[in-house]
Records
---
Amino acid sequence: MTEHSNPSKVVVLGGGYAGTLAANRLRTRADVDITLVNPRPEFVERIRLHQFVARTGTATLDYGTLLGKGVHLVVDTATRIDTAGRTVRLASGRTLDYDYLVYAVGSTSATPAAVPGAAELALSVAEFESARRLRARLEEVPRDAPVTVVGGGLTGIETAAELAERGRRVTLVCGRTLAPSLGAPVRGQVADPARCHRARGRRGDRGPAGCRRPCRRFRRRCDASERADRLGGGVRRAGAGGGERAAHRRPRPAAHRRDADQPR
Ligand SMILES: Cc1cc2nc3c(=O)[nH]c(=O)nc-3n(C[C@H](O)[C@H](O)[C@H](O)COP(=O)(O)OP(=O)(O)OC[C@H]3O[C@@H](n4cnc5c(N)ncnc54)[C@H](O)[C@@H]3O)c2cc1C
């Protein structure tokens, strides 16, 4: 590879999946100088945070094992981008010049203000720092303390299933539809009925033992899944309607999530 005397400066903001891949991919060019800015000295595998919380896996990796030679890591947080001047201000007060900027800061989770108490009491699984607090909190409470997971999207389902697999008593609270981002056929795969559970539904409060009728389909899936029996009694879904379903095992990632879930 030819060394360029005046390489273009590329600053990548955010060392998640996107930023790390971008920085490494840019190394195929000889005419760039690559700086990756990330607030933590370790790569956080967000897709493993529910496992980190449940203590069934880790969620951090040393950048040294991920970043190719020539990518400069700056542990800091971008606070301001000056596009006219082509500079990035960092929380430490340092300023980086750039010719090209890759903006890959990911997403953050917002605690809905509409839910009273959520901001003060709930702990999010979506970011490393809050996941670490949640993990510590779970260690403090008795093993059989009830755990409520709010949110019936894929992250909520995965978290509830992971905790149930560790023997926690988990209730998953969601809206009318479990895993709404999935199409109906896939949704059926993710959330087979394990046990009917009527929460405060249209017909009044029936309590968690409102219906104990096991589902034929669940039994069939238990036959096929070695872990289903352990999860079957562990996770209940509480929602708005009656005749609800339980997520009884860790769902297979849906098609659009599969790429990120593969080992790298
Ligand atoms: C529990 C859980 C399970 C998931 N499972 C799956 C799954 O199975 N499949 C799937 O496809 N997706 C999954 N996701 C979603 C997936 O994690 C995100 O889509 C993915 O992390 C996005 O990658 P990213 O690189 O854009 O952002 P991120 O991974 O969020 O990385 C962004 C990085 O930028 C850093 N950053 C933020 N602000 C700044 C700043 N100002 N300056 C510098 N750096 C900054 C952050 O600290 C972070 O390191 C899951 C998410 C969670 C929470």
Note: The radius of gyration is 22 Å.
---
Amino acid sequence: MVLEGLGSSLRYTLRKIVNASHIDKNLIKEVVRDIQRALLQADVNVKLALELTREVERRALSEKPPAGMSSREHVIKIIGEELVNILGEPKAIKLQKQTIMMVGLYGQGKTTTAGKLARYLQKKGLSVGLVATDIHRPAAYDQLSQIAKSINVPIYGDPDEKKASKIVKQALKKLKGVDVIIIDTSGRHSLESDLIDEIKEVAKIAKPDESILVLDSTIGQQAGPQAKAFHDAVGINGIIFTKLDGTAKGGGALSAVSEIGASVIFIGTGEHLDDLEKFEPQRFVSRLLGMGDIQTLLEKAQEVMDEGKAEETAKKMLSGRFNLKDMRDQMEMLTQMGPLKKLMGMIPGFPADLSQDDLTETQKRLKTFEVIMDSMTNEELENPKLIKSSRISRISRGSGTDAKDVRTLLKQYNMSKKAIKGLAGNRKMRRKLMKQLQAGDFGA
Ligand SMILES: Nc1nc2c(ncn2[C@@H]2O[C@H](COP(=O)(O)OP(=O)(O)OP(=O)(O)O)[C@@H](O)[C@H]2O)c(=O)[nH]1
Ligand SMILES: [Mg+2]
């Protein structure tokens, strides 16, 4: 996984949010400190890391969650959004006829990435040709030839030619028929003037539609100044980061180029030609944070909260007070089942152990009860004794059910109430139930 270290520490932090009993200022401050530490460890620029965490804190403390979103989800969403923000705008490669020039310092991954890009475009249905202009390293032509052969694309190069621009001139003629021409250039240890002159000359002949800078992401924040220097020299349209597999400094490289306004197109995540991924900040961050896992965790947290509510209702029930509203609350939880399955057996008047068929039947019945109760007035819910035959007709009409169903509901209510009364008077039984509730023994 890309940036495993950063990902795992951020995921650990998000877990804190998911598992916290409630979200408060202290928790947010703690989370923000964790994120700061994680970003700095991933080599993200201090200023950028501070800006991000300040913004997360400000938003988490001041913004209200949109309707239907819990405060946990909201804080996690803010963190995700701010992380996406520091990665900047992505750029997509156009799927059309064009000339692409790859530039970069020595050993950054230009040649490999030229092959990866050729493979990518080929898979998208374009015909591609590769051009080898590295006149300095003798093995360069062979390296690109091998890549070209493995993906079955034409290559043009001339190991005997000493001028890169001449090779390009020939290549443009030879590869006229292909959709995309990808020119691999030579690298240097540093941005010396002869490298600059050479790629400038290549560019003059090739007139590339895209000049792509290939950057080894292990250089971390150095990516920023390097990108700027290349941009000033030849004009860079997009960046491809390589070696994002297994680097602790990837966060530094990614954030550094976005800071100077350069757009990342792809990331290289391995030595194989298929190890090229479109760079999509949103997806990148989702994966980094393990959003799929987080969603599951949030759902689990929701269940835990329901258990809390179940306990509250059960306590109220044990106090002896019980009206139709209380019954509706219980039923609401019952219909969610899952970890509450066991609790159902604990509610007096409902069967203790249900088969799946019984369960389905009961759920159906509960659904009908719910519809009926929706047609009752608040007064009726709080004081069910009021419900006599004229009201029963009105309620059944209003809910589109039979009067018989309304009577069944009232019968069920009376049974539950009676059982609860007996229970509330039975101290031994009460203690047993409370113990079960406190142990959180709801089963799954
Ligand atoms: N793990 C990993 N290795 C990569 C990746 N991209 C390139 N490499 C490796 O990095 C090394 C250098 O890659 P090249 O493509 O030869 O780099 P270059 O920029 O063309 O190098 P020069 O032409 O010598 O300047 C090779 O061993 C590649 O296999 C990547 O995304 N992940
Ligand atoms: Mg090379």
Note: Residues 110-111, 134, 140, 184 surround magnesium ion (ligand 2) (CB under 6 Å).
---
Amino acid sequence: MEEGKQRIVVGTDLMRKGATMLREACPRCGGLQVKYQKRTLCMNCGDLSDAATMAETSTVDTLTSLKDLILVKVDQAAVLLRKETDPQRQSDLASLLLKYVELIGRLERPDSK
Ligand SMILES: [Zn+2]
């Protein structure tokens, strides 16, 4: 992969995993900086190979962001269900919600099968 593109991918991945964008630009190159797991990384000149590894190994973060994503989906499905008048569609949405809820339960107790 071309290096500039790789940086964007790593950056996006870090943001999704809870990295925050910093207001201060990089003192060395003026590039965009993000903070991830107590480390400040420049998206332009920082060593992102390191960050890519961190992003991959952080299972807890992945589970947390997955749970957040499901919660958003639950919200969306609940809104749809409220507006839905067709019984068949309501049933579909209800079973969808049930699946999300089950998934969240499993994420909260990863050891129980
Ligand atoms: Zn920099």
Note: Residues 22 and 61 are 19 Å apart (CA to CA).
